[in-house]
Design brief:
- Pfam families: DYW_deaminase, E_motif, PPR, PPR_2.
- GO terms for molecular function: RNA binding; zinc ion binding.
- Helices cover about 65% and strands about 5% of the residues.
- With about 775 residues, it is mainly alpha-helical.
- Helix 22 runs antiparallel to helix 23, helix 23 runs antiparallel to helix 24 and helix 31 packs antiparallel against helix 32.
- The radius of gyration is 34 Å and the shape is elongated.
- The protein binds one DNA strand of 10 nucleotides through helix 14, helix 16, helix 18, helix 20 and helix 22.
Length: about 775
DNA sequence: ATAGGGTTAG
């Protein structure tokens, strides 16, 4: 050591032998040379920079009184190469402050940092500087400018500079091509690729690698194959980087067999290549293959998963709702102290949310050191997906308090939360924010807004949004058709379906569910049967269980109980509780005890899945006065441990949502609500209202029935609404279950007495009461 | 070269 210091000329060679473990030694040496000469410091800084030890390089650099331009460039390049990019720009600015004139080598590096940060304002300043120094003709500088403008999104300026270049080498061509490819302007990218070849320059592997993502995103399989063939001819298709690009392109084109073929040709597969293949399987919904390949990578090939690998594989667990696998991966990450970056953390949150364990999702969110928009959005969507819209809104408040801004994906979580809650005022706020922030250019956002207005009872607003959209996808049409359906506007629903067919867009399986249920609710048996047979024959959509259930509903609702029964038995699927449940509901409507009993037995054989069906059967017995049988069914239900989920209704008044469960007396205004209900009951009875005997458990007095029914949650919510809103305002109440027959008839009277529009959204549709009539025509 | 949160129906 001492010998080295005494003989500084030997120092550099001794540094070459240093490795990470000897950094300390290196530091000691450089402390000793600090006061010697700047020439050595220059070399030392360059050496550290070349080794990517930026902090050490910076430490030395900062001690040099007047670094040469070359050294400034070295430092800026080091930062531009591997970040932090901001530091490259910072050094450039300091260089100018100190009066050092940048050279033509400075610009490509600092511009690269601008590209990485998408910092176009700084980029423009640098461009000005280039012009004042008269360096715009330099190939390297102009290429860097092209790259910066292209990456930052100003493709026009990039193209202008590129066109003005007298000499364009392959790097310049790659810069402009990768710019267009980066923004997925597929046609322009392909055009430039052709022009490049016309100019006599053959694309190299960098060119190929930069265009492949755009090919994949554009789903341009034929182009992709041509590029693959070109790569084979030029003998770089076996290069890991090219092969990774190729297999990613193939999987984005849903061509997994080619992707795996390319994958298998690579001899020296690295983690990126494995991750790309695993990601490809996940993209194509081949979750089992993704998991198998992951095991292969980690167990057989002893490679460590990178954050990218983990993000992909966690997504596979989420899609499979394989909580065990997801948890074991989480444990593995903790045990092997893999650095949990924010992306992986967000994948974990999403996995927990998709598996329905929101406690774990929120628990992990709270542990996260750096939470971002995605973390919160995952939680918000998770709560909505798990049926806790109100918690989604609460988390959103927490997100705002923590200063993290929302983006359009957050909004796409918030809007369905408003839909579920029928929270019109929150929903309208979301709509407003979406306009202000420019989200409404996004089709998915508009779709969510259409759904929100429809579920909040404002179907006309939905249609306005739908009509004004620039671009509609199949979800837009489906949402609008379904919205008409739940509002009982079946003519509009079916006519929109015909418009969709005329528009040239292909209906999908969801469209047909919407159409079939529209037919079923409006009693259009023949039309429903027609579309059911047509969907597989003409529209090339194979019917799923849900479609069969729609058909059962269609037949049974119209009174064709026997036909529905045999339809269920002929289904190509094992009939489930829902299929039988649809028939059972119709048995109740059509008071067919014999069929009801048969169906009820089938359901009981299927096991403990549905409670509503027990209630239904019990009600069927009660409706014909067979109280003992009704009680027996209820006792089986109790005996087997089924619990009826409580009826719950809510109403939004002045932006506050008030919720009530059946018999609820806990609201501060409970006394006046009760008075209102009693007062209404008297008036209703004067007009001929009679409590429906079939709905309440057997052998209680009429008086008592009235009182039980009086406090069904929807009635409490309506009374609350009457008391707390001006008479000109319509009332919208939302209920978690289906409305009961008695409430349905009572609300008709209430609308007549109070002369108010009352809308109830129950679990299946809207009931719009006005002047004693409901728009469902008592058929629901 | 690979990666995270996202709209409709049941």
């Amino acid at each position: 050591m001492r010998r080295c210091i005494r003989n500084p000329k030997n120092q550099l060679s001794s540094f070459h032998t240093l490795n990470h473990h000897h950094q300390l030694q290196g530091n000691i040496i450089h402390q000793h040379v600090t006061h010697n000469n700047t020439h050595i410091l220059h070399n030392l800084a360059r050496l550290y920079a070349a080794r990517n030890q930026i902090e050490l390089a910076r430490h030395v650099f900062d001690q040099i009184p007047e670094p040469s331009v070359v050294l400034w460039n070295t430092m800026i390049r080091a930062y531009a190469w591997s970040g932090p990019f901001q530091e490259a720009i910072h050094l450039y600015h300091r260089m100018l402050q100190l009066g050092v004139t940048p050279s033509n080598f400075t610009f490509p590096f600092v511009l690269k940092a601008c590209s990485a940060l998408q910092a176009i304002q700084v980029g423009i300043q640098i461009h000005d500087h280039v012009l004042t120094l008269g360096l715009q003709a330099d190939v390297y500088v102009s290429t860097a400018l092209v790259d910066m403008y292209a990456k930052c999104g100003n493709l026009f300026e990039a193209q202008t500079i590129f066109d003005s270049m007298l000499h364009r080498d392959i790097v310049a061509w790659n810069a402009i091509i990768s710019g267009f490819s980066f923004h997925v302007l597929f046609n322009q990218t392909m055009h430039l690729l052709a022009q490049m070849q016309l100019a006599g320059i053959s694309p190299n592997s960098s060119t190929i690698v930069s265009v492949l993502p755009a090919v994949g995103q554009a789903n341009a399989l034929c182009r992709g194959k041509a590029i693959h063939a070109y790569s084979v001819r030029k003998i770089f298709s076996h290069d890991v980087v090219v092969a990774t690009g190729l297999l990613d392109m193939y999987s984005k084109c849903h061509h997994l067999s080619y992707a795996t073929k390319v994958f298998n040709t690579v001899n020296q597969k690295n983690e990126i290549c494995w991750s790309a293949m695993i990601g490809g399987y996940v993209f194509c919904d081949s979750m089992r293959d993704a998991l198998a390949l992951y095991d292969d990578m980690v167990l057989m090939h002893c490679l460590s998963p990178t954050p990218v690998t983990l993000a992909s594989i966690l997504r596979a667990c989420a899609k499979l709702t394989d909580l065990n696998k997801g948890k074991s991966l989480h444990c593995y990450m903790i045990k092997s102290s893999i650095n949990l970056d924010t992306t992986v953390g967000n994948s974990l949150i999403s996995m927990y949310a998709k598996c329905g364990v929101m406690n774990d999702a929120v628990g992990f969110l709270n542990e996260m050191i750096t939470k971002d928009t995605v973390s919160y959005s995952a939680i918000i969507s998770g709560f909505v997906q798990n049926g806790h819209a109100e918690k989604a809104l609460l988390i959103f408040c927490q997100m705002q308090l923590s200063g993290i801004d929302l983006d359009s994906a957050t909004m796409i979580g918030l809007l369905p939360a408003c839909s579920h809650l029928a929270a019109l005022q929150y929903g309208a706020c979301c709509h407003g924010q979406s306009i202000v922030r420019g989200f409404t250019a996004d089709t998915s956002i508009c779709n969510a807004i259409i759904d929100m207005y429809a579920k909040c009872g404002k179907i006309h607003f939905s249609r306005q949004i739908f009509d004004r959209m620039h671009k509609r996808d199949i979800v837009s049409w489906n949402t609008m058709i379904i919205s008409y359906g739940i509002h009982g506007l079946y003519i509009e629903a079916l006519s929109l379906f015909h418009e969709l067919r005329a528009s040239g867009l292909k209906p999908d399986d969801v469209t047909l569910i919407a159409v079939l249920s529209a037919c079923s609710h409006s009693g259009l048996v023949a039309e429903g049967k027609y579309w059911f047979s047509s969907m597989s024959q003409d529209l090339n959509i194979s019917p799923r269980m849900a479609h069969y259930i729609c058909m059962v509903d269609l037949l049974a609702r119209a009174g064709n109980l026997d036909e529905a029964y045999s339809f269920i038995q002929r289904m190509p699927f094992q009939p489930d509780v829902c299929a039988w449940g649809a028939l059972l509901a119709a048995c109740k409507t059509h008071r067919n005890i014999e069929m009801g009993e048969r169906v009820s037995k089938k359901i009981q054989l299927l096991g403990p899945e549905s409670t509503g069906n027990f209630v239904l059967m019990s009600n069927i017995y009660s409706s014909v006065g067979r109280w003992d049988d009704a009680a027996h069914i209820r006792s089986i239900q109790r005996h087997q441990g089924y619990k009826k989920s409580p009826g719950c209704s809510w109403i939004e008044i002045s932006g506050v949502i008030h919720g009530f469960i059946g018999g609820d007396q806990s609201h501060p205004q409970s006394a006046s609500i009760n008075n209102k209900l009693q007062e209404l009951l008297v008036q209703m009875k004067n007009l001929g209202y009679q409590a429906d005997s079939s709905l309440v458990l057997h052998d209680v007095e009429q008086e008592e029935k009235e009182q039980i029914l009086l406090y069904h949650s929807e009635r409490i919510a309506i009374a609350f609404g009457i008391l707390n809103s001006s008479p000109s305002n319509p009332i919208l109440v939302t209920k978690n279950l289906r409305i009961c027959v008695d409430c349905h008839s009572a609300i008709k009277f209430m609308s007549l007495i109070t002369k108010r529009e009352i809308t109830v959204r129950d679990a299946s549709r809207f009931h719009h009461f006005e002047n004693g009539i409901c728009n469902c025509g008592d058929f629901w």
